[in-house]
Amino acid sequence: MPTKEEVFEKIQAALVDALGVDEEDVTPEATLVGDLGAESIDFLDIVFRLEKAFNIKIPRGELFPEDILTDAKYVQDGKVTEEGLSELRKRMPFANLDDFAKNPVVQDFGNLLTVADMCRFVESKVEVTD
Amino acid sequence: MMRFEGKTAIVTGGSRGIGRACVARLAAEGARVAFIYQSNQQAAEALIQELKCAEGQLRAFQADVRDLQRAHEIVDGLFEEWGQIDVLVNSAGIVKDGLMGAMTQDQWRDVIETNLGGTFNYCHAVTQPMMMARRGSIVNLSSTAAEFAARGQANYAASKGGINGLTRSLAKELAPRNVRVNAIAPGMIETDMSQVVRGIAGDQIKKMIPLKRIGQAEEIAAATAFLASDDASYLTGQVLRVDGGLSLGGY
Ligand SMILES: NC(=O)c1ccc[n+]([C@@H]2O[C@H](COP(=O)([O-])OP(=O)(O)OC[C@H]3O[C@@H](n4cnc5c(N)ncnc54)[C@H](OP(=O)(O)O)[C@@H]3O)[C@@H](O)[C@H]2O)c1
Predict the structure, then answer these.
(1) Yes or no: is domain A1-59+113-130 CATH 1.10.20.10?
(2) pLDDT for residue B82
(3) pTM of model > 0.90
(4) ipTM greater than cut 0.85
(5) Which DSSP string corresponds to chain A?
(6) Minimal Cα–Cα distance from B166 to chain A, Å?
(7) What's the CATH fold of domain B8-238?
(8) Ligand 1 residue neighbourhood (C-beta within 6 Å)
């Protein structure tokens, strides 16, 4: 069973490999898109690496719900609808969507996910000790 | 030339025709090759015999390319064994011509699911290993039929047009990961697939081809090997016509 520290370290390594960023830049507060420069294809790369590092299966779209954000049912005038927000909350219980919900511009979505969110995501998939 | 020394390749539809010539070419240039065939075990075994590869250099898998799960099983197994997948050639394909008014839904589905669906399935399966390795080259067998019309080929032309679109989109997607995706559009090539058409209209077709002859599978394999190799390292998202000039038009 990994500790929280180990989870962070493995995620840090995955992000360094996938994004080619420096280890120092991968802090818990860093946002994946804004600070670390991740693009949508990088999320797939990150998912592959997390699956390998933690020996888990991650359903596609769970970490980065692109399907919701590109679905006309959930997006209107470039913003995620109420219905879309509730889908996102269901899909991503590990992320704090409150700030995003105030002005849910699709373009800004990528900017909300932080390294700490990602740690919580992995912790929900593997058992961790303190 | 030994451009594939130390490299690995998967070829779908490798038991016959163009796929078979690709297997032979890649193996001759040093690649470890696994090929997929549907049912013609005799042809698959004959190829293995004929190529006389070193132990373990050549593998055959019987599988239907329409089966995505099987594609993943095969690719994952090879990845584990080889540690890398450098090249994928999607050559499995069929024709089931019919005029629209007479075309059955099965004719439509079989062709779309084999040609386009099969290409999707194997691209899907190699994406992860190639992305993570930051290298790879995919070559999809399209056809000049995607852009030049023939009666009774709505299903086939649509499947090949689909392959061209898939090729360009995936090329853009995987380019940041140093994975190249291209297609080859052969004209009329001497294989089992074109046998009937050649039998009926061979001489007439030859007259339409500026080079005045039907192409050989080896000539497609040579172009495929080029696109698959590092010689084409700055080439991605292209559909290369290898057709003796058939598609040039004019007079
Ligand atoms: N020949 C031409 O003039 C020409 C022109 C333009 C484009 N092309 C394209 O080039 C590619 C190769 O054509 P070809 O002339 O080499 O055809 P071919 O001689 O008929 O060989 C077809 C190959 O595909 C395999 N295959 C068919 N359906 C399959 C399935 N569902 N699952 C797995 N394997 C399957 C066959 O396996 P089995 O041996 O087990 O049946 C065989 O190895 C095709 O995509 C074709 O559309 C050909």
Answers:
(1) no
(2) 97
(3) yes
(4) no
(5) --BHHHHHHHHHHHHHHHH---GGG--TT-BTTTTT---HHHHHHHHHHHHHHHT----TTSSS-HHHHT-TTTEETTEE-HHHHHHHHHH-TTS--HHHHHS-BHHHHGGG-BHHHHHHHHHTTS--B-
(6) 16
(7) Rossmann fold (3.40.50)
(8) B 12-19, 36-40, 43, 64-66, 91-94, 114-115, 141, 143, 186, 188-189, 191-194
